[in-house]
Amino acid sequence: MSRLATLPRRLALLRPLRGTTCTARSYSTASEQRLDNRVKIVEVGPRDGLQNEKNIVPLATKIELIERLAKTGLQTIEAGSFVAPKWVPQMANSSEILSHILTTPPPSPHPLTYSFLAPNMKGLSNAFSILDANPSSFSTESNPSPSKPSLEMAVFASATETFSQKNLNASIAASLEAFRAVISAAKETPYNLRVRGYISVVLGCPFEGYDVSPHRVAEIATELLEMGVDEIALGDTTGMGTAPRTKDLLNCLRSAGIRNEDVAMHFHDTYGQALVNTAVALEHGIRTFDASVSGLGGCPYSPGATGNVATEDVVYFMESLGMDTGVDLDGVAEVGEWISKELGRGNGSTVGRAVLGRRKRKQE
Ligand SMILES: CC(C)(COP(=O)([O-])OP(=O)([O-])OC[C@H]1O[C@@H](n2cnc3c(N)ncnc32)[C@H](O)[C@@H]1OP(=O)([O-])[O-])[C@@H](O)C(=O)NCCC(=O)NCCSC(=O)C[C@@](C)(O)CC(=O)[O-]
Predict the structure, then answer these.
(1) I need a labelling partner for 166 at 20 to 30 A (CA). Which of 135, 151, 178, 325 fits?
(2) Could you report the per-residue pLDDT of 61-71, keeping only the tens digit for each?
């Protein structure tokens, strides 16, 4: 059944927000009681990881990064961003990246989904022009093919007005209006693309501090789901999130009727809390987590924010809990070391450094 066909059922589960409180219910959902040990890791290194790099990373390096990551068992790779180049120059060659993925799909143990950000119709049209030039080279929901890559577009809203203005030059309401067109066009035939809806600064804003209402996040998430997004990605852009605040936020979303399977967590590790918050979300029943190889990243509009939680750290953490990510830890650690050297920076993954250090000692 296509994701679109399940939409009415999903929306039927969303209860009106007016009057809801953020108090946790005292019982678990059926999905939480199900023993599900599979976790999906969305690798955001090639987009979120690189977008903040000061020096323009050569196209060949970006493509090699994606190709190396594709071999490690990751299922989804965020590969680029169709935004205005004057705002984020590092993402200016996203058309070339998409084109390369379609014409020369990176070898991978299983079919991969590649995700690209598009905040408006201009960005989406730029992506469509690449798809139009390669019409039968990707898998769609109406015409699935295991031998071709799948594509996903992502829109990105904010939980605070100030961050929305800084990141998108628009109010939250205006940005949501622009996303409505993007979401419906992406879902139309012949593209039939999956769409992800980010919400940034859900646990703290660089401009408005800790005063971010979980109730407001739930409202925005509901609106995006009603527009047709397949998944909400909750961005702790600043890394200010703590365990109790993560729990409160997820309880609030649950109270609003938003299902765990429609939610992904996107943690940054600026305050070293990302894995603690990951544990809270995992226990809550979330099974999709964003991460960036060797902890690359930061948002150009979030001063002081450091990288995403490292993919290597999340994989090791999940394995320690008996969860199955399908990702080869050694393989992804090697990619982390390689890209760190390419960028001339230290490897930001504690686990990556430990895994490679242990291997080196064994060889000596
Ligand atoms: C949304 C806009 C475009 C509004 O920017 P604007 O300046 O208000 O847009 P505009 O409509 O006035 O257009 C200005 C110029 O940009 C062009 N333009 C307009 N749109 C596009 C486009 N899509 N692609 C290419 N060009 C574009 C447009 O054609 C025009 O060109 P000109 O006539 O001056 O030559 C701008 O604010 C923008 O690009 N923002 C992107 C910001 C961004 O990428 N932030 C980082 C990603 S979000 C993030 O990292 C957080 C996340 C997702 O990881 C989760 C988390 O951690 O929280």
Answers:
(1) 151
(2) 999 999 999 99
Q: Which of 169, 208, 266, 308 to mutate to test the pocket of ligand 1 (most atoms within 8 A of CB)?
A: 169
In angstroms, what is the span from residue 275 Cα to ligand 1's centroid?
31
Residues 33-83: tens digit of each pLDDT: 444 899 999 999 999 999 989 899 999 999 999 999 999 999 999 999 999
State the distance from the centre of ligand 1 to the C-alpha of 155, rounded, in angstroms: 11
Q: The tokens 């790779």 sit on which residue?
A: 77
* Per-residue pLDDT at 11: 37
Residues with CB under 6 A from ligand 1: 48, 51, 81-84, 87-88, 117, 119-120, 122-123, 126, 156, 167-169, 198, 200, 235, 237, 266, 299-301
Distance, CA of 209 to CA of 309 (rounded, Å): 21
ipTM metric:
0.98
Pinpoint the alpha helices (H) of the chain: 7-12, 30-33, 59-70, 94-103, 121-133, 161-168, 172-187, 214-227, 243-255, 274-284, 311-320, 329-343, 350-363
pLDDT at 111 over 90: no
Q: What is the pTM of this model?
A: 0.92
Is the peptide bond prior to 206 cis by the omega test (within 30 degrees of 0)?
no
Distance CA 322, CA 186 (A): 37
Q: Judge whether 299 counts as a catalytic residue.
A: yes
- Alpha carbon of 83 to ligand 1 centroid (Å): 4
Residue 181 has pLDDT above 70, yes or no: yes
Q: Map tokens 């799948």 to a residue.
A: 150
**Ligand 1: centre distance to CA 55 (Å):** 19
3-state class (DSSP) for residue 320:
helix
The answer to whether 307 and 268 are in contact (CB under 8 A) is yes
